Amino acid sequence: MTVSAQVSGDTRKVGATTTKAEDFVPPYPFRYEKMPPVWSLIGMAKRNFLSIWGVDDFQSRLRSKKIFTRELVICNRPDVVREAFQTNHEVLQRKSPQMRHALQPLLGDGLFISDTETWAKRRKVVAPIIHGSRVRGFAPIMIETIEEKRADWAVQGEGAEVDALADMAHLTAEIICRTIFGRQLGKDYAAEVVQGFSDYQRHIDQIDILSLFGLPEWLPRFRGRAIKKPVERIMTVLDKIIASYEAQKESGETSVIGGLLEARDENGEPLSRDAIISEAAVIFMAGHETTANTLAWAWFLLSQCDKSRAKLQAELDTVLAGRSPTFQDVPNLPYTKAVIEETLRLYPPVPILAREAMADTSIGGKSVPKGSLVMVVPWLMHRNPVLWSKPDVFDPGRFLNPKSKKPNKYGYVPFSIGPRICAGLQFGMTEAILSLAILAQDFELKLKEGTDVQPVARLTLRPGENLPMTLHPRRT
Ligand code: HEM
């Protein structure tokens, strides 16, 4: 097998854009010129949702396709994204039936999949608990956990093989567990929580084909019984953790569960136990794999691009001069941030944002009937050649260079946009910057020879099932 990342040694055509000799073009699936039949597209979608797009889809502004009875509308330019997710939020706030069916057994009426009144109420309570202004309070837990990972890598020594994807998943799960439940309970229960969620995900990690066909909501989905066990397991653990928290809550440290227990709505009412469990599950689910995938991709991209890796190391060595970063250092690490931003552009962890129209509406002058699926596909828009120069090239510098061609905030949406924008945006960015800074300061990661890395999307976009890399300490 060969490494599929393409480092171009000459001038080549990628999509509609020409790339230069030293440009690094990381892997992406084949893009067809002529659309295959629908049944074949559905088969492709089931295996990898990224492979169903043709060259024209990347360049488009607004497209619609009919899949059996359901109208699919794809918004791929800032003006129509704004119209769909901001202006038309009231009508387009409902998540797709695929997403709701996949996550409802676990998240109940949790913020991530609820809408209208329930969503508005929960957003008001949950968002402030993980808001940017609270991240300073969570930073010590993040840094401590990342430093444990660094120590763990240090004992493994030169050339040790790690699965960077699993390692980053472990790191971000530990961080989110300790943030939600507090240092000690987070440590005690992390393994159990992670196991429950990954069991669950194994069962739902596929496209809900019934819903794509537009079949009615009441029709039973096949996996109902299989996911009952992991759901029960997660609920039992969360209940146990909350009970332990209540028994020892005087520790005074910042934790999400403390925030949820103390939260009151506008009538002074606390959240019910079920609501607290649902929202804790939402934050764990939304906040761990996304950041883990981002970091895994960043390691892969840096391993293939000497120029960017050297720039990152130079920034870390100059700004930090050998000490660990603190929360205050984050704004002084612009290149580290740009690496994360460029990683999120090329490999957005949530590659598709889909909504169901709750009433007839219109976007870009096109009428959108009730029941249509309206999609913003970061995977497409972040590589739209009309919006970006050399869209398939890995170039963190584009986020720092004011002259680089970049769209407005509706054209770069790794965290979504509009009222349903990721409630953990600052948390996730800070966590990713600190993780990369602390680990890349001391280690270089090389891709294991012969590894074929390809992006695969089911619920989130990952570099396959694992990412074998070797560890190389930078300082002795
Ligand atoms: C790099 C890391 C992250 C990325 C790329 C990311 C991305 C996203 C995206 C795209 C959505 C909207 C999904 C949709 O519309 O279908 C979302 C929602 C959400 N995210 Fe994040 N996220 C990240 C980290 C986090 C973290 C660390 C937390 C919590 C601490 C978090 C909490 C949430 C919540 C609660 C929602 C639901 C918001 C709502 O529906 O109102 N996320 N995230």
TrEMBL record:
Cofactor section: heme
InterPro entries to which the protein is assigned, alphabetical: Cyt_P450, Cyt_P450_CS, Cyt_P450_E_grp-I, Cyt_P450_sf, Cytochrome_P450_Monoox
One GO molecular-function entry: heme binding
SUPFAM superfamilies found in the cross-reference section: Cytochrome P450
Transmembrane segments: none
Family: Belongs to the cytochrome P450 family.
The protein's name: Cytochrome P450
Organism expressing this protein natively: Roseibium aggregatum (strain ATCC 25650 / DSM 13394 / JCM 20685 / NBRC 16684 / NCIMB 2208 / IAM 12614 / B1) (Stappia aggregata)
Organism lineage string: Bacteria, Pseudomonadati, Pseudomonadota, Alphaproteobacteria, Hyphomicrobiales
